[in-house]
Amino acid sequence: MSETHPAVRALQALVRHPTVADRDPARTDPAPFVALRASLAEHFPLLHGLELVEVEPHALLVRWPGRSHARPVVLMAHLDVVPVEGSWTHPPFGAEIHDGAVWGRGTLDDKGSVVGICAAVESLLTEGFVPARDVWLSFGSTEEVSGTTAVDAVAELRRRGVQPWFVLDEGGAVAAEAFPMVAAPLAVVGVTEKGVTSVELVAEGAGGHASTPAANGPTARLAAAITALERSPLPLHAPTPTLELLRRVGPHLPAPVRPLLARADRLAPVLTRVLRSAGAEAAAMVRTTAAVTTLSGSPALNVIASTARAGVNLRVMVGDTVDDVLAHVRRVVGPGIRVEVVERNEPSPVSPWDDQAFALLERITGELFPDAVPTPYVMMAATDARFFTGLCERVYRFTPFRMTKAQRGTIHAADEHIGVADLLAGVDWYRRLVQELPA
Ligand SMILES: [Zn+2]
Q1: How far does residue 76's CA lie from ligand 1's centre (Å)?
Q2: What pTM was estimated for this model as a whole?
Q3: Largest CB tally within 10 Å, which of 126, 155, 277, 416?
């Protein structure tokens, strides 16, 4: 019975620990993390007999020695989850099985990957398998709060002189309904990710009693700045991984549209405009985006704000720099608004998709998900993988699980769930990847 498979029981055990981290480490409840580590040790005893490197108490860095110690691979995932929001059909930390799926926070993001990797390694260890080269496992515990556990793992690998052949973290999936008019799922492998940068727009004035307002106060100027930003988005451009995705998707489109994408490189400007108009998800593929997220003014209804603030979350596209984007924002909002930079992150370097490492991911994906179209793409969300780009030129972001469009919508939202069969197919994918690592 697949529902009693050890990997399924392990996932249920992990999901039942509400490992929600806080941006302030002092405010993170350590108990669920301690319990989760104990569950991992209980479900994957052979893996825990490998070399466990102490980096941070709640994270896990493991070295599995292979026949060669040169150019190892690093398999990543994260142990923390985002808090529960919205109304759930089944308890979010219950890990109940309904309709052939395990329901709960973290089933897709990212405890499914943790279990996929660990169950693959555990089963290979049971068989006495020795990989062709060292395999490192790096599971952070602060991914969702931009913490430092992945940074610490990178520092430890650097200290040991480890130079990975490639690094694989969570990211794209075997995504159904991923592209308009294409019936085949796309197995999207992130070869880069946008840079997350945040600013606050600040307008200041004299404040005062709300009964005697002056014209053009801080709140009015801030509102004008927000509207201006919305009306002047950053310039459109499709980076090379997006063009490659279009080229690969082309043959799967209805005949009349096919020739258009076969010449994606030359038709980039046209396609870019098409994507911009094809909904929010597609539009984010062709430009740096800006979202106004937080707003604050006066604390009382009868007090005029002396300071009004708006937080803007920017996702910097490959090809733009943070400085380009900040210059654009400053120009658009004008001199009356101060732009304070809260965090700045450049987009990640682009990993190659024309060499042996990517070809390996592509081949295994083709064998296990024969209906899917493997393709590189630009990840829109941030992952811990970005911290590894200084250590390794090949950093890939792929989660080998089938996900429907509806399921992708449950990540960081309500009703997150993973199909039992999909989890087990993912275990097979990681197994095959380790088995087929070349010498
Ligand atoms: Zn994640």
Answers
A1: 10
A2: 0.91
A3: 416
